[in-house]
Amino acid sequence: MTFQKYSQNSRAFPTFVVIGTFILFAAFFIGFDQMYMLVLISVLVTLLYGMSVFYEKHVDDYLNITFPEPIIKHYQGDDGVLYMTIAQNGILPLLNAKVIVEMDNVVQFKDGRHIPRRYMTSYTQSINLMFWEKRTIAIPYETAKRGVARVHNVEVVVPNMFGFGSIFLRSQTRFKQEVIVYPKKSSVPNIDLLSPKRMGYHRATHSLFEDHTLPVGTRQYSPGDAFNRIHWKASAKEGELQTKVFEKASQISWCFLINIHDEYGRGVNENMELLLEKTAYMMHYATKHQIPYRFFINVSSVDQIPFMHLLEGEGNSHYKRSLEILARLKLLTFTMKYERLLYFVQKHESPPAYIIQVGDVSASQLAYLKRLERKGSAICFLNENGLSHSAPKEVAQHG
Amino acid sequence: MAIDEQIHKMKEQISQVIMGKDDTVELLMNAFINQGHVLLESVPGTGKTMLAKAVAKSVEGDFQRIQFTPDVLPSDVSGIQYFNPKDQEFEMRVGPVLTNVLLADEINRATPRTQSALLEVMEEKQVTIDGETVGIPQPFIVIATQNPVESQQGTFDLPEAQMDRFFMKLDLGYPSFADEQRMMREHRETNPLDTLQAMLTKDQLKQFQEDVQSVYVSDVIETYILSIVQQTRQHQDVDVGVSPRGTLAFMRAAQGRAAIQGRDYVTPEDVKTMAPYVLPHRLVLSLDGATLKSQDDVLQEALEAVEVPAEYGVHPS
């Protein structure tokens, strides 16, 4: 482990050394009787100085700091404990040292210091560490808001040997420690607006569509069956032509389109946090009712799809991934014009059963949504009050 | 030959193929002597199939493999009744399950329906085809492999009922630097898999099974096992805890470990060591619980919540 090291030396020690040397020389020239005593003292002082320099140079050689639990997950409002292990694997002890840990202010250290200018929270703990000793420090915190908190700085301040100044050791290791704070779930009272086709999962008894990854068996061939649907292996076993039968699948899915811009397309929607909480609630509902969903957010991403997104899926792991993406969403970041996102969805995505528009929408953006509606998707608008089938009035008037 | 000596020999042989996985081999052998099925889960390329083949080759008996893909049908696993035009009669053709060691490769690539075709044979060691039940020769052990579901498209989670039928779930992980270096050297010119010999005969396996069953489990250990199981059922983040089948598997795994270590009694250490391999895959977490914790985390909490019984003479009472 590497540390950036700098020291703040006390001036007393070098001054003391200079004066001592001067007295030693003076005593030598004036023929002082107790000369051997002075030589002994000067050797002792030189030895102490040497040890002090050695300590400063090598105190961090075998010092190691780790966070045993790399990822901790919470919901907003939960309390937690961050464990940090500090080990001195060498022979130089750390006496009366201080350990300072700084993290993003997504979490707030209890008994810590808030640094609003740097969006950080800081925690200081005094520690004594003898040679070959390892200690684990428990740092309690509470989660303040949605987001991901990383450890940005770990610093150890060690007083120099014999108290002449301090050594500052700033860790240069990039810690992988993360505290992920998921958004709260804020209920959407009229979520039933989306439910009529929901029950029974997307594998439906009656549907025009089939899922070709879900074969259910074979049946006797009947004229008109496509050649590529003949199950040759089964046909050979049965002694007559057999046609593959697939699971019927209805096209039920939700697609969240999240616009983090305000209605003018310049700033950030002031209610975005609440809307994300409602989105999280809807995703929870979808997972519980086995409804597959996907989402797109107009935040830039270096990927084939240039927006922050999650492709269609369902189940616990999909929900977990969704919450993690919502937690990682930063509102003050590089965004994209919402029209580009809508254009992309219209051109490249298969139309979902429901599109849920989250956030503000302008008249021109509404036109894109109308085009998606004409392709067979039902549009719903998620606002602070819940879901509605119609766009906000002022947009509708302009549109 | 005693169990511990035989297992040691097998570990030596298998370590020529899969380096640095002695613990995993020991766990696999534990499952074998308990006639338990094993699920090997790991990222691609870590030697799941290779290990399964090596273990299967080291045990006397028939070996069959099913490569699971989305278009494998349940009848491809269990078998069919087909009409034989020569004899003008229906004939039974049992599928690849009619074997001693069945390798179900990439099991989560098949649909849940096909995966479920293994349910009967895994639990009852028999297969029913069109109303006719056929017994499977003993021993019968399924070694299934799968890639972690989270990172895969086109895969299907195993049904809970099937997960519960797996005696153990093992994660191979990456080899150490030294083991990987040894692997590079060993695999440079030859495939060590070709040189493996069957070392464990059916009779030996049967004898070992009887020996394991006679390993002593004291009342204190029974209570300890049950307390851990109860703890998993009462945990706030768990929807479905460890089943009674899981409890039995847990006890047998601890007995197996004791036998492999050369003891005829189970210690709390055996119980605690086997818990992470036998229990977590049987837990079904709640939706919110699954977003915060893994099954291993929940088990760890359960283990920490239960007091470990002290040895006699040490306990103050």
Automatic annotation (TrEMBL), chain A:
Instruction: List the transmembrane segments.
Output: 12-30, 36-55
Task: Give the UniProt keywords, A-Z.
Answer: Membrane, Transmembrane, Transmembrane helix
Q: Does the keyword Transmembrane helix apply?
A: yes
Q: Where is the signal peptide?
A: none
Q: What Pfam families has UniProt attached to this entry? A: DUF58 (PF01882)
Q: Which residues form the DUF58 domain?
A: 218-289
- Check the record and name the InterPro entries matching this protein: DUF58
Q: What is this protein called?
A: DUF58 domain-containing protein
What organism is recorded for this protein? Alkalibacillus flavidus
From TrEMBL, chain B:
Q: Which GO terms describe its molecular function?
A: hydrolase activity
Q: What class of enzyme is it?
A: hydrolase
Annotated ranges, domain AAA+ ATPase: 34-176
Signal sequence segment: none
Task: Identify the keywords attached in UniProt to this record, alphabetized.
Answer: Hydrolase
EC number(s) from the headed UniProt entry: 3.6.3.-
Give the organism the record lists.
Alkalibacillus flavidus
Q: What is this protein called?
A: MoxR-like ATPase
CDD domains named in the record: AAA
Matching entries from InterPro entries are given as: AAA+_ATPase, ATPase_AAA-3, CbbQ/NirQ/NorQ/GpvN, ChlI/MoxR_AAA_lid, P-loop_NTPase
